[in-house]
Specification:
The chain is an alpha/beta fold and about 350 residues long. It has 13 helices and nine strands.
Amino acid sequence: MKSVSVPGVKTLIVIPCLNEARTIDDLLLKFSSTLNHPEDRIIVADGGSTDGTRDIVADFSRQDQRVILLANPKRIQSAGINLAVEVFGEGYDYMIRIDAHGDYPDDYCHRLLEDAVATGADSVVVAMDTVGHGTFQKATAVAQNSKLGNGGSKHREGAKGRWIDHGHHALMRIEAFKAVGGYDESFSHNEDAELDHRLRKAGFRIWMTDKTRMTYYPRASIGPLFRQYMAYGRGRAKNLLKHRTIPKIRQMIPLAVLPCAALALFGFVHWIALVPLCLWIAACLAYGVWMAIAEKNPHGPLAAVSAMTMHLAWSTGFWRELLGSITTLQPLAGKAVS
């Protein structure tokens, strides 16, 4: 695909954030210097930061009026982006979503716009490279970049540009975003996959670009990682319940982890109850050792621990949401019958 110019295209860059004082200034410096159009704006939708993030953005805004601080009283990312588009989106062509936990090449927005114009896509998504600094974060990055941790998810892999069902949100045509009602604010996680389902159902097209990608920094300790993936699992279950979709095979495999752990509680009755859980642990550890040997990655064994944390948390979140929804529906069904 030949490089194309993007004259006249107006873009709204939205950064939903909460307590991102360590990264927000660098992000504003990067994107304010690469805006495509004189009327482009950067909207920081802040969910009530208490670490000085709001002060940093306010100071930056006084120097550069293209940067706007927007209070997001609902706190979650989906609500912040919806609010930014609702308040400032009129007259703009595209919205670019920036994750404050990530890093981006200098020409990130320009490459997204090029591909959007060249392909006619309604949404352009990107692949992610996960990078860590401390020991556990590095191990988690290794896990998330591997099939053990991502199950072959397309937005975790680099490949030739192609049409796709879902990917990590980067750019979206504001007209398409508004047409399907934006993000569902009942989703604190997995809101991107839920929106992609509605976009495809409405006939809009999603393009995964190979012209740029982002860098993501994972959670740096086991507790936050577990809570993050439990929320992902709950979000996926909500998606399934809302749209009556069937999980993909790569999602079905980790779904079995919590049932295996529950079955293992009956190991005192018969040892065979321990077999499924032990097989899962052995498979993960073996993959970690393989990464250490075949890929010469010293973080391989610890990456297996990170992957097991992600699997168990995702499975726990999924089943908690699914079973909770079923138990909620049962009393309602009883009232309807009576």
